[in-house]
Write a structure and sequence with these properties.
Largest sheet: 6 strands, mixed
Helix content: 55-70%
Mean pLDDT: 78
Oligomer: single chain
Distance between the termini: 33 Å
Strand order of the largest sheet: 2-3-1-4-5-6
Structural class: alpha/beta
Shape: elongated
Low-confidence stretches: 123-134, 334-339
Strand content: 5-15%
Radius of gyration: 27 Å
Number of strands: 6
């Protein structure tokens, strides 16, 4: 019998397009993620059972739950939930592909590069400036890593309303990307490139930026040597290519794999890949933090119990294991009350 998260893993396994996603789906389908959640809920169940047991004997002023031990337990649970939630950034990249924004000025060769990387004519290529006016996306798999390439409208001053909207979307995609391929036409004057850097670099501070100097086939070796001094003050990988002549593009792919820096995934790794799971873990984490704060403030057991129940509820949402009778059953089953 599968729980809800295992059933979702079956769909992920069918839809998997990379070795990493395949391994994670197999692990989740076998119950790796479910087992972690079951352990957490079991600890929380004992935790809240002791608290609620005290409430039943409130008139007798007894304490079944040692607050110091409870705080240590809650802290350990908080760390595990946070670790699972933090793994979503890696899991989402493995499942949906690492977002790579291809940006630059008009006619720099962005669409030619996209077509070359994905191996088909996905974007219209033209010498006319402003040809690409909307975002075009496609994915490829490189050495087991899925990349989601986003070709964007060229950045330039324009009075065209539609093109301006496309440029605004360029900056939106830049903010959403993990890796930025800034395609630079080597024939562009250095001053113009420096001015564009003032716009792009502040928006890409937390990204992995690769400077892709394109059209190297149009320059002599002496001219290329002079151009290699461009943007030396920017801490970013750089590569010189000719997208049209398909020169150095394999090196670019290696740069992308290195920039992805995804960890090796085994079938025993527990990594969150589902946005629903991530949202539930985030809410569970907020609840367990309230428990820890409540223990520090020595608040009454009924308030502690409410937050513990909420944490259990959100963890149970992931697997479909939600029951109001669990706590009562655990009290009678483990603590012999009423026998």
């Amino acid at each position: 019998k599968m729980d809800l998260s295992q059933a979702e893993a079956v769909a992920d396994l069918i839809a998997s397009t990379s070795a990493g996603m395949h391994k994670l789906a197999i692990n989740q389908m076998r119950g790796g993620f479910s087992n972690e959640l079951t352990k957490l809920r079991s600890q929380l169940l004992d935790f809240t059972s002791l608290i609620e047991l005290e409430l039943d004997f409130s008139e007798e002023d007894v304490e079944f739950a040692d607050r110091t031990n409870l705080k240590q337990l809650a802290t350990g649970i908080e760390q595990l939930i946070r670790k699972l939630a933090d793994s979503f950034s890696v899991g989402n990249a493995i499942k949906n592909g690492i977002p790579v924004a291809i940006i630059g000025e008009t006619n720099a060769g962005k669409s030619t590069l996209l077509n070359l990387l994905v191996g088909e004519e996905r974007a219209i290529v033209s010498d006319i400036h402003g040809t690409t006016r909307d975002v075009i996306e496609d994915t490829i798999n490189l050495s087991g890593v899925t990349f989601r390439f986003i070709d964007t409208a060229g950045i330039r001053e324009t009075n065209d309303t539609i093109e301006s909207l496309g440029i605004e979307r360029t900056f939106q995609k830049l903010r959403q990307a993990s890796i930025v391929l800034w395609v630079i036409d080597l024939n562009t004057p250095a001053e113009q490139i420096e001015e564009l850097a003032k716009v792009i670099i502040p928006k890409a501070e937390d990204k992995k930026v690769i400077l892709v100097f394109n059209k190297s086939d149009l320059l002599s070796s002496d001219e290329l040597e002079l151009k290699q001094q461009l943007l030396n003050n920017i801490p970013a990988d750089r590569i010189y290519i000719s997208a049209k002549q398909q020169e150095n593009t394999e090196v670019l792919k290696q740069h992308l794999i290195q920039a992805a820096a995804l960890p090796e995934v085994s079938q025993n790794d527990v990594i969150v890949t589902n946005i629903r799971h991530y949202e539930a873990l985030t809410k569970a984490h907020e609840a367990i933090l309230r428990v820890i704060n409540g223990l520090e403030m020595n608040i009454s057991g009924d308030f502690l119990s409410q937050d513990i129940r909420e944490c259990m509820h959100y963890l149970g949402e992931i697997t479909g294991q939600i029951s109001n009778d669990e706590i009562l059953g655990n009290i009678f089953g483990k603590f012999c009350i009423g026998k």
